[in-house]
């Protein structure tokens, strides 16, 4: 039930909490202030009444029936032990004895505020006359002086409490409004971010949220959101391009297959069914290869691989090189033990693709090296072919991109091998690129060494 009553707005919640806390704190301060002021006023009156009572003790019996008021202390009475008023100031003459307070001998001065419905409240001091004077004037019978004055209106009419309560309410209201305004100003960038995020759609990821100045949490949130939007836009652009190219690559063999089958149906006497089936199988095989490579690329990008394991990259290079067959030999050189953490299947796939491409384009030999350098395992695959122009060195890693020399040497290829290899290298927090070489193409794979102070491959 209480959860439904709780404000949904952060601004309202903060304001409510701040208002309640400020009211509680100010009420405590107000009560303390009220007690302090009341005590201060009463202490001052008690001091004056004590001085007045001390003066009256010098009065002698029978000298006068009235006492002379001193300063603000206008209520003076001299009473005996039986409560009879023996003398009084003019203001106190019409009153009965003001108090039943009778200080003992060991505590001759006592203060009190006496209240009655008829005469209101009186702040007074009761003073016991010293024994020496009582023996002289009254044969030792105790006598008392009562000195006081009416309680000030500030205390009697509770004006002090009203003023303090009004101040507490005003300050609490100002604190609540200030919290509302401050939190609202702090949340203005969040509202702007939310409004801009509502405008962003999957078809248009070019918008960015407004980033406030400074380095506070909201500015960092906006910066992170913009980085995320940039990655999403890049990913969406890549996916649209990939889908377009994949559709084009799949469209040609599908269209060829459809044409062959239609010819077989339309011209059964002119088309040999066995030739049609043989050609269709070849086309289907190409479609299957393209689809398998597409699934491999998607799997590398999205599917979480098996937990990483320690792998001797030098030994893996030697094993893959020894398994290669073909007219172009592969020469391997390794320098020490090069251990990395990674997925064995994916690393084998990278090396297999690199060696296959190198053998396909090499003239006489392929050279492979594996060594550790600056906390990284570095594998180079170099062929002595025609090489790759600098302008095409990044293009060859894009899906379905095939240079003219590659089409000539491998007409059935689909241009996904290098894209899959680079993605797998990035999954291992490494890199795969083409670097300069004296002759041919030089592919360089870099992966973090297992014992380096770098995070392991993503698991």
UniProtKB/TrEMBL annotation:
Q: Where in the cell is it found?
A: Cell membrane
**Keyword tags:** Kinase, Membrane, Phosphoprotein, Transferase, Transmembrane, Transmembrane helix, Two-component regulatory system
| Enzyme Commission number, as recorded | 2.7.13.3
Q: Which reaction does it catalyse?
A: ATP + protein L-histidine = ADP + protein N-phospho-L-histidine
Kindly give the InterPro entries that the UniProt entry links to this protein: HAMP_dom, HATPase_C_sf, HATPase_dom, His_kinase_dom, HisK_dim/P_dom, HisK_dim/P_sf, Sig_transdc_His_kin-like_C, TCS_sensor_his_kinase
List residues traversing the bilayer: 12-33, 162-183
Q: Which residue range or ranges hold the Histidine kinase domain?
A: 245-451
Q: Which residues form the HAMP domain?
A: 184-237
For this UniProt entry, the molecular function terms from Gene Ontology, in alphabetical order, are: kinase activity
Q: Gene3D superfamilies under this entry?
A: 1.10.287.130, 6.10.340.10, Histidine kinase-like ATPase, C-terminal domain
Q: Which domain of life is it from?
A: Bacteria
Its name, as the record gives it, is histidine kinase
Source organism (scientific name): Streptosporangium lutulentum
From which lineage does this chain's organism come?
Bacteria, Bacillati, Actinomycetota, Actinomycetes, Streptosporangiales
């Amino acid at each position: 039930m209480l959860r439904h009553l709780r404000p949904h707005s952060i601004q309202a919640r903060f304001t409510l909490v701040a208002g309640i806390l400020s009211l509680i704190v100010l009420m405590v301060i107000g009560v303390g202030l009220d007690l302090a002021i009341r005590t201060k006023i009463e202490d001052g009156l008690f001091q004056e009444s004590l001085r007045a009572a001390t003066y009256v003790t010098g009065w002698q019996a029978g000298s006068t029936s009235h006492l002379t008021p001193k300063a603000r202390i206008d209520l003076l009475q001299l009473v005996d032990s039986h409560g009879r008023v023996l003398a009084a100031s003019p203001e106190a003459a019409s009153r009965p004895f003001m108090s039943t307070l009778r200080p003992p001998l060991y505590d001759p001065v006592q203060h009190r505020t006496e209240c009655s419905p008829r005469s209101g409240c009186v702040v007074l001091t009761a003073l016991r006359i010293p024994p020496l004077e009582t023996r002289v004037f009254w044969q030792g019978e105790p006598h008392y002086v009562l000195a006081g004055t009416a309680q000030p209106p500030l205390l009697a009419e509770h004006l002090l409490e009203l003023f303090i309560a009004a101040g507490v309410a005003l300050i609490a209201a100002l604190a609540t409004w200030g919290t509302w305004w401050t939190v609202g100003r702090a949340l203005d960038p969040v509202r702007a971010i939310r409004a801009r995020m509502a405008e962003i759609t999957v078809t248009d990821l070019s918008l960015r949220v407004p980033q406030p100045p400074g380095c506070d949490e909201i500015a960092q949130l906006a910066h992170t959101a913009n980085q995320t939007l940039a990655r999403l836009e890049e990913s969406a652009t890549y996916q649209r391009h990939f889908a377009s190219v994949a559709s084009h690559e799949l469209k040609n063999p599908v269209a060829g297959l459809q044409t062959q089958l239609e010819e077989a149906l339309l011209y059964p006497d002119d088309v040999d069914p066995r030739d049609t089936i043989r050609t269709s199988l070849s086309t289907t095989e190409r479609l299957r290869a393209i689809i398998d490579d597409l699934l491999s690329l998607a799997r590398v990008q999205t599917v979480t691989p098996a937990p990483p394991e320690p792998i001797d990259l030098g030994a893996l290079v030697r094993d893959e090189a020894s398994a290669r067959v073909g007219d172009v030999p592969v020469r391997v050189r390794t320098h020490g033990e090069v251990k990395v953490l990674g997925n064995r299947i994916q690393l084998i796939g990278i090396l297999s693709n690199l060696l296959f491409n190198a053998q396909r384009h090499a003239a006489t030999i392929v050279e492979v090296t594996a060594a550790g350098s600056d906390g990284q395992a570095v594998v180079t695959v170099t062929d002595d072919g025609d090489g790759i122009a600098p302008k095409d060195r990044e293009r060859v890693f894009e899906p379905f991109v095939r240079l003219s020399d590659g089409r000539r040497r491998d007409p059935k290829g689909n241009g996904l091998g290098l894209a899959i290899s680079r993605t797998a290298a990035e999954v291992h927090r490494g890199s795969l690129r083409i670097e300069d070489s004296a002759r041919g193409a030089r592919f360089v794979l870099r992966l973090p060494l297992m014992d380096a102070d770098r995070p392991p491959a993503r698991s």
